[in-house]
Specification:
By secondary structure, this protein is of the alpha+beta class. The protein has six helices and four strands. Strand 2 and strand 3 form a beta hairpin. It starts with 10 loop residues before the first helix and ends with a helix.
């Protein structure tokens, strides 16, 4: 059975293997705190989350966080919040959902 290289991993592969430590690093020095605060949000997976082969999106009110593959970023994952310029609770909530709901998301 051939082994996939890191560059061959899909978004689903990356998200299914994502650890809390890796997610926190993607959010910077306050990543642990941001994910913990984001984890306090009540999320309805059916209403607020979309996941396809290109991106994971979480909608929180007027904010949307998108996580997608980007070969130029750490762990090849890039995130973007449409309302915040710096790592934020919205992004923390997105990573918290991914880390806590892997089974429900099919990861």
């Amino acid at each position: 059975m051939p082994t996939s290289t890191s560059a061959d991993l899909t978004l689903f592969d990356r998200l299914s293997r994502l650890t809390f430590t890796q997610a926190a690093r993607l959010l910077g020095p306050e990543g642990n705190r941001i994910i913990n605060r984001g984890g306090a949000w009540e999320i309805d997976l059916d209403e607020q989350v979309t996941l396809d082969r290109h991106s994971f999106c979480l909608t929180l009110g007027t904010s949307t966080v998108k996580i997608s593959l980007d070969p130029a970023t750490r762990h090849r994952l890039a995130w973007h919040c449409n309302t915040c310029q710096a790592p934020c609770e919205h992004a923390g909530a997105a990573f918290s959902v991914i880390l806590e709901e892997k089974g429900a998301l099919g990861l």
